[in-house]
């Protein structure tokens, strides 16, 4: 057998040699998550299942949501997405900020869309509608973090809302790996309580309305 | 919503380094996303080393537990995947050493029970099966570099780091493995 013939055979082996069956990824993740939970790890999200963890969840939710709690009704929300700091370009007065409509529109639309989707998810969760919260929350969580790093989060109130939503969505996202239905329901109830106490959904709704009206 | 997230992710260049940074801060969701990205690949890699479905699952889990447990030590010199695969190979090889020791202890007993029923591998005319059998028959010191290089597609530098050997040693072992395979499969010329 020549080298070329062997190479050809080995190339085919990439697809055929010891091909594993489809692994049970969800089950495996649950085991990984539990092992990390039981070790002195630094996972920031609450442990599942213990009363201490639930107390911790409530405390964390209350603490974070207390930061930048909505005063949406006090003043209209203005997204600073239309602005470019000209100080960095050296083409204008240091403190001046110019409007860039080309940049503003897509981000503003994205933020509006995201908040609308988030509001729908949170309302479903509040009302106890059965749904695949985890997957939706994971997708929304990614957007939340992107928005937190975007000019949309320059506004302090908007940033506060995004940060609150980040925590809430992260908690919802981890529900999918929760063990028993009872634990899942316990965690859901805790999230619902936090949502109600801190008026999260009305704040999101107000933000959506304000952003939508500013698009017109 | 997925499209919006995807579009934003693309436009703002969010990548794995960001997820690693979040996981390093203890973010389970980021860790889960890293797991989702790499689990199949790690599982396949481990399975190719141990060829045992249950063991491959356990070892994949062990690899991720170890990786997330040590993620603070990941400095980002290489891609997260490379670092993770190195851990997975290390976990798998250590486990296989234990399995081998266990088998070695058990073998004399099994042999004494019935030597006549030892499995006999019949010659298979099919090149693919013969090749797989020939790879399996290589000693571990040759088989692992061989599989990692030719089947998994790692470079000799990566293999060296995974197996704790020099790059040149990896090359030499793959060369030797190829020579043995050519010899074994000579009748396919």
Can you walk me through this structure?
- The complex is a heterodimer of chains A (216) and B (189).
- In chain A, α3 packs parallel to α7 (181-197).
- Mean pLDDT of chain A is 68; it is low at 44-103.
- Chain A contains eight helices and two strands, in the order αααββααααα.
- In chain A, 28% of the residues are buried.
- Chain A is extended.
- Chain A is mostly helical and 216 residues long.
- Helix content of chain A is 64%, strand content 3%.
- Chain B is globular.
- Helices cover 76% and strands 0% of the residues of chain B.
- With 189 residues, chain B is mostly helical.
- The N and C termini of chain B lie far apart (56 Å).
- The longest helix of chain B has 34 residues, at 80-113.
- At the A-B interface, α1, α2, α4 and α5 of A face α1, α3, α4, α6 and α7 of B.
Major β-sheet annotation of chain A:
2 strands, antiparallel
The helix content of chain A is: 55-70%
The strand order across the widest sheet of chain A is 1-2
* Gyration radius from CA atoms of chain A, angstroms: 23 Å
| Quaternary organisation of the protein chains | heterodimer
Largest interface: A-B, 52 and 52 residues
Share of residues in helices of chain B: over 70%
Question: How do the helices and strands follow one another from N- to C-terminus of chain B?
Answer: HHHHHHHHH
Mean pLDDT of chain A: 68
Low-confidence stretches of chain B: 1-14, 112-124
Strand content of chain A: under 5%
SSE inventory with pairings:
The complex is a heterodimer of chains A (216) and B (189).
Chain A: H1 3-16, H2 25-38, H3 51-66, E1 83-85, E2 97-99, H4 101-127, H5 133-148, H6 156-173, H7 181-197, H8 200-215
Antiparallel strand pairs in A: 1-2
Helix pairs in contact in A: 3-7, 4-5, 4-8, 5-6, 6-8
Chain B: H1 2-12, H2 16-24, H3 28-50, H4 53-69, H5 80-113, H6 127-137, H7 140-151, H8 156-163, H9 167-184
